[in-house]
Amino acid sequence: MIFPLLQLGAVVLVALYLGRWRMGVRRRNSQSWESLLTRLRPDWSARELSDQFLWKEGLNASPEDTWTRMEGPHGLWVMYQNAKVMLEMADYATRNCENVDRVLVETLRSDAMQIRVCVLMALAQYAFSHASEGVRVNAFRAASMYTGMAARMTQLLQESAAVLVPDFVAAM
């Protein structure tokens, strides 16, 4: 008697998950460029870390300076959220532009996931040991990947949809 109830519960949970996933995909596919730009968090920018972070990779700061300039966990959380938005921007470019570099889009996807994992690791370390050396190194790695992702995103937009670049640069 209990086994059929467990099966029914599992089927209901899977159906709910798939329905929610489908709604998320539909919502994501219907987003406009402007709505994506408004989701970028402007309260912290990697401009603090690199002179030309939208045009080339690399940081101009040490791990200690990076931690200070990013305002600690605040900057990490902004990078975490903006990485997701930039991933959705890459998907938007893929859906709406004909001549998109697929390798560059896959690199952006990989960057976004690596940034998010690195940020979560740094935040977890920060929760236990505050601004230790390991936290600063992970924050530096995340910031370095973030500036690289921003530069690749600018490159993708320049190649595929140059009219979108000024809005992206202004939002970052």
Structural class: mainly alpha
Radius of gyration: 19 Å
Fraction in helix: over 70%
Total DSSP helices:
7
Oligomer: single chain
Residues in β-strands, percent: under 5%
Shape category: flat
Mean pLDDT: 82
The number of E-state strands comes to: 0
Order of helices and strands: HHHHHHH
Which helices and strands, and how do they pair?
Elements: H1 2-29, H2 33-39, H3 63-69, H4 73-96, H5 102-129, H6 133-160, H7 165-171
Helix pairs in contact: 2-4, 3-6, 4-5, 4-6, 5-6
Q: Can you walk through the features of this model?
A:
By secondary structure, the protein is mostly helical. It has seven helices and no strands. It has helices spanning 2-29, 33-39, 63-69, 73-96, 102-129, 133-160, 165-171. The chain is flat. The model has no long low-confidence stretch (mean pLDDT 82).
Characteristic terms for this protein:
mainly alpha
Quickly describe the structure.
It is built from 7 helices and no strands.
